[in-house]
Amino acid sequence: MNFQQKPNTFVSHVKLKVQDLNRSIQFYQQIVGFDILEKTDTTAKLTADGKTSLLSLEQPEDSLPKQARTTGLYHFAILLPTRSNLADFVFHAVNQGIQLGSSDHLVSEALYFNDPDGNGIEVYADRDPSTWKWNGDQIAMAVDPLDYEDLVKEGHPNAWRGLPENTVMGHIHLHVAELDKTHDFYTAGLGFDVVSRFGNQALFISTGKYHHHIGLNTWNGVGAPQPSANSAGLDYFELTYKDRKSLDQAFERLKTLGVSVQEESDQAIVTDPAGNKIRLVIQ
């Protein structure tokens, strides 16, 4: 089952601000496995299938290093098609000298690392949804040690050839300043369901019974400030809705909450209570 397509609302694209565009392009090509779709002196669009951009990069004028203890990106997550793809990536990352964090989330197996600007990246593979455990509307997730020994049995040391063409943007995880208004914005406004809570520190939300399309946490502190506009980090991410009617309904719900919606033909730009910018689009 593909949770990153209609009729779900899902994260389809992420745009990052970086300090050195050429350095970042080299990293995302050689380490992560993207190809360049388009490039200018200050921007680049990266792709896995040669047609669709999953990640964009921009080097702002007078760019600053990524600021700590602010709202913004915790990580974006690249979803590989198969577990064997993930195993192949392990061999590749080790060969490239990349220090990996990892976790078994029960619903998925995940690897973690940072780009040269400190932007968090997750590369993961989902377990079969039939194995996910639900307690009513809440899904069981954990942060267990990843069994590397078992995982790499499915891979080959020299098999990695870049991101497979059916790779997608699986989810995004954000630092926010608080959870109450943030909860209302993403659920009552954007139409997501809460599928997991980690105490009063984190929410995981999705559509279509996915384990999460968006993670939201206050781990940088309640009341964390927004980063400077030209600092490295998240510029915006895209949420794709199934049709114009669904998009219009989201507009109306957001306006009812008092959220400013900047409409532009078949898309709109909104900002969550923590200052994270979101582009709402139609598939």
UniProtKB/TrEMBL annotation:
Entries under InterPro entries matching the protein: Glyas_Bleomycin-R_OHBP_Dase, Glyas_Fos-R_dOase_dom, Glyoxalase_1_CS, VOC_core
Identification of the protein by name: VOC family protein
Give UniProt keywords alphabetically. Answer: Metal-binding
Q: Which Pfam families match?
A: Glyoxalase
Q: Does the keyword S-adenosyl-L-methionine apply?
A: no
What residue stretches are annotated with the VOC domain? 10-126, 168-283
Q: What's a single GO MF annotation on this record?
A: metal ion binding
The organism encoding this protein is Gracilibacillus oryzae
Q: Which domain of life is it from?
A: Bacteria
